[in-house]
Design brief:
The structure is a single chain. By secondary structure, the chain is α/β, with parallel strands linked by helices. The protein has a single domain, classed as Rossmann fold (3-Layer(aba) Sandwich). 40% of the residues lie in helices and 18% in strands. It is built from 6 helices and 7 strands. It has helices at residues 21-33, 46-56, 85-94, 106-117, 130-138, 159-173; strands at 2-7, 37-40, 61-65, 77-80, 98-102, 122-125, 153-156. Strands 4-3-2-1-5-6-7 form a 7-stranded parallel beta sheet, with helices on both faces.
């Protein structure tokens, strides 16, 4: 499956990204080992760390880049768009079968909402901060963002749980 990973952007050696760097690399490695193609925004922060993990195990990571961005050094493929950070998120989410959210600020919140509106199953990696944790606290019936119940929003507390959820989503799609 195509798995989008969204989350914090920014320098990987600064808070809050530095505190979750190990789990981001582990997430990238685990997704690649399962044979998934990882999609991300292609820049720094969570995107760079997850891309690094994917590359460490020779996986495939696609960066969907905003205008005038070259992307991080770990990308296998770069999709250059003419769009800003927010608008390019439409391409990122539409290219994915499932979305994993790690921390994040307003751009990540928008990506989570786009995923929900487009009925893309989303996994919130709880304990990573930002909008990922905020959304995890307000889910209706513990799994929806609104009463339309477009798709399930899952919560996971570890990389292993994320892999299990994505595997189950893949089984359901067959």
């Amino acid at each position: 499956m195509n798995v989008a990973v969204v989350g914090y952007s920014g320098p990987i050696d600064q808070s809050p990204i530095s505190e979750i760097s190990t789990i981001c690399i582990e997430l990238g490695m685990a997704l690649a080992r399962q044979g998934h193609t990882v999609f991300c925004g292609g820049r720094d922060g969570v995107m760079e760390l997850v891309s690094k993990g994917v590359k460490e195990v020779n996986g495939n990571v696609v960066g969907v880049l905003p205008v005038n961005e070259t992307g991080n050094e770990y990308l296998s493929t770069r999709i250059k768009t003419p769009f800003d950070n927010i608008t390019r998120s439409l391409v990122l989410i539409e290219s994915s079968d499932v979305v994993v959210s790690v921390g994040g600020e307003i751009g990540t919140a928008i990506e989570i909402l786009i995923a929900y509106a487009r009925s893309k199953p989303t996994v919130l990696f709880t304990g990573t901060g930002g909008w990922t944790d905020r959304f995890s606290k307000i889910l209706i019936e513990g799994k929806y963002l609104d009463m339309r119940k477009n798709t399930v929003v899952y919560k996971a507390q570890s990389v292993d749980q994320i892999v299990e959820i994505i595997t189950e989503i893949g089984r359901q799609r067959r």
